[in-house]
Design goal:
This protein is α+β, with helices and mostly antiparallel strands. Helices cover 23% and strands 33% of the residues. Strands 1, 2, 3, 4, 5, 6, 7 and 8 form an 8-stranded mixed beta sheet that branches. The radius of gyration is 16 Å and the shape is globular.
């Protein structure tokens, strides 16, 4: 398969089939190359982490193909303010599991109800430098949905074509200073939107799974 090959919803389901939801949402998998990170950063990520879930929403736009929905977080938030993200947040005591967290937060932030969401895959929990263990929940979302954005959490939402993200030439390798050391990071830039940090890493990992 080439990066530019068309991926349908059915192909996406097949490529991501067989993934399971981790029974421990804090049992993170460290990304490749993390052994080169500063010791202080690795120690922080090995400490107690707060479980969180995010939804990676795919929308089938017909002849235009699949796209992924992202949100621009409010600048007033305590964590990840003003960043591009996926709908999601920390796990609440009433959530049955981390998938329920992602579904609940998605409804609260952008108004997509559970009945309009088909979960098709899970990624392993991954750590963030802000102390969260994030589990990405991959889903297909009904293309007819109308977003109802909670402006206290989300400034706006936008979509990026899957074909753009699959194209390796659109991956940008940058260096970010963390704990006094420069750490290599992946970014994606699309029509003025900068996708970086843990969100970009989720996209990067997911694109590898879809290409295989």
């Amino acid at each position: 398969m080439t990066d530019s090959a068309f991926i349908s919803a059915a192909t996406l389901r097949a490529r991501l089939a067989g993934t399971i939801l981790s029974t421990d949402p804090t049992d993170v998998v460290m990304p490749p190359g993390s052994e080169q990170w500063p010791a202080s950063m690795r120690e922080q990520l090995a400490a107690s982490l707060t479980p969180a879930g995010v939804l990676v929403p795919f929308i089938d736009r017909g002849i235009e193909g699949l796209s992924i929905l992202f949100t621009q977080r409010s600048a007033e938030l305590k964590h990840h303010a003003g960043q591009v993200s996926f709908p999601g947040g920390r796990m609440d005591p009433g959530d049955a599991d981390i998938a329920a967290t992602a579904l609940r937060e998605t409804y609260e932030e952008v108004g997509i109800a559970r009945e309009n969401i088909e979960i098709i895959a899970y990624l392993d929990p991954m750590p963030t430098v802000t102390g969260y263990a994030v589990t990405p929940v991959v889903a297909l979302v009904d293309e007819s949905i109308e977003l109802k954005i909670d402006k206290t959490e989300v400034e706006y939402a936008f979509e990026v074509p899957l074909q753009f993200l699959l194209d390796r030439s659109n991956e940008r390798m940058v260096e970010r200073e963390i704990h006094g050391s420069k750490v290599p990071m992946i970014e994606f830039h699309y029509e003025g939107q900068r996708i970086w940090g843990s969100t970009a890493f989720i996209v990067f990992q997911l694109m590898k799974m879809i290409r295989n």
